[in-house]
Structure formats: C-alpha cells, structure tokens
Write a structure and sequence with these properties.
This protein is of the alpha/beta class. It has eight helices and seven strands. Helices cover 42% and strands 15% of the residues.
C-alpha cells in the first residue's frame, strides 16, 4: 500500500453532504476510501452520495443528528470504520451580549459536543481493528476571536484542545487524532456570513495572501494526508488550511 493509498478503508464524514465535508469526502474517495456521509438532510446526502459514486467511490449515507447520542452511535454499525471526520458545524453570528443561552448551547453541542460523542463512539471500533484516524474540523477561530462569533470561536478552540487530549489518550491504540483549521472557505455557511457581516468579503481578500476564498477542493489534500499511513507519526496537530490568512497581522 502506498503512503496515501486508502483502498479498503472506510471513512465516515459528519456533515459530509456539502462544503468542507464534501470536499474532504471527494479527496478520500479519490484515494480509494469507501465513504459514509452522515448528515441530517436526506436529499442533500443523496445528491452527495450520487456525486461520490460518479467518481467511482463506494458510498452511502446515514441520517444522523450529531447532537443526539443515540443517533451518533448509529455511525458505528458498518462493518469497519477506519477514518472519522468530525466536520458537522453551525454558527450563530451575534456579539456575546446578544447571544442567548439556548443559542450558545446549540453551537457548542453541534460543533464540539458532537465531536466528543462521535469520537467516543468510534474509539472501541478503531481499537478493536488495531488503529484508526480521527480528523476534527476546527477553524482559524481556534487561533483568534471575532466579535460576531463567540460561541463558534469557543467551540473551535475547544476542538483543538479536545484533539490534543484524544491524541495523547489513544496513541497506544494506534489512533491518530488531528485537527484541521480551515480559513475562509466558500460554503453555504460562509455565504450567509457574507450577507450578515458587512465588508467581510473584501476583508478576507485583503488579508489572505492568496487573494481568494478557499474551496472544498482545497480541503481534499489535508484530509487524505491525515487519513492515510503518511501521517502515522502525526498526532495532536492543528493544521491551518487558510491561504495564509492566519499568518497576517
């Protein structure tokens, strides 16, 4: 098997029916992995599965609410599970003084608690198989904050620390756990952000050395690396994929 070959591996991607999740799923499929798209929207998942199958991948979907433990545990019903991408996420853009407790909990449950529940569910499966890969999706908001995203930034900062804890705890189980910190990627979530945050589009282009927004395709390579044998000695890391946005002052 080549260092980046994923043939025979099964990957579950939460929120894998669009945006960053689908971009990663395409990359994993291209490297030979079988894909399970885990998301709430059945129609959207069906379209994603059809696209992955058109690429030649073995793919299917499972309807999952990542905020419900029993629902999350259904992801482990497949014959094997080698790769978990904790990608499902949401945001409510309000300053801290306008954010309600219910809104805070909604964001934390979707972005952070879901990653705990999914990782907790797959750990015994991966340990029994002799190892596995977990990829948690953080954000550049893991590195710094924004006035309009207090809950999101808290959840994504938590993702990085949770990643480190799991990496340390499960290293002897041959489970590598890493985080990816996307920058401004063109997705449904960030398209809504451009409508809600005045001047965001121009600010992103001005600060990003690459002078463009990222795409789902930009997330494929890091997913393959962290899911493959090429990263067997990489664990607990948090890798920015942001066109240089986070290095700018």
């Amino acid at each position: 098997m080549g260092a980046f070959d994923l043939k025979g591996r099964v990957a579950v991607v939460t929120g894998g029916n669009g945006g960053i999740g689908l971009g990663m799923a395409r990359g994993l499929a291209d490297a030979g992995a079988a894909l399970v798209v885990a998301a709430r929207n059945r129609d959207k998942s069906a379209r994603a599965v059809a696209e992955l199958k058109a690429l030649g991948a073995d793919a299917e979907s499972v309807t999952v609410d990542v905020t419900e433990e029993a629902s999350v545990e259904t992801m482990t019903r497949f014959g094997r599970l080698d790769i978990l991408v904790n990608n499902a996420g949401t945001n409510i853009r309000k300053p801290p003084h306008e954010l309600s407790l219910d809104e805070w909990r909604q964001v934390l449950d979707t972005n952070l608690t879901s990653a705990f529940m999914a990782s907790h569910a797959v750990h015994p499966v991966m340990k029994r198989q002799g190892g596995g890969k977990i990829i948690n999706i953080g954000s550049m908001m893991s590195l710094f904050g924004a006035s309009f995203a207090p809950a999101y930034a808290a959840s994504k900062g938590g993702i990085v620390q949770f990643t480190k804890a799991c990496a340390a705890a499960w290293a002897l189980d041959n489970i590598q756990v890493n985080a990816v910190l996307p920058g401004w990627i063109d997705t449904e979530l960030t398209q809504r952000a451009r409508r809600e945050v005045e001047g965001l589009h121009d600010n992103v282009l001005r600060r990003t050395p690459a002078k463009r927004w990222g795409t789902g395709a930009d997330m494929a390579g890091v997913a393959v690396f962290l899911a493959s044998p090429a990263s067997d000695f990489v664990t607990g890391s948090a890798i920015p994929v942001d066109g240089g946005y986070s290095i700018q002052g």
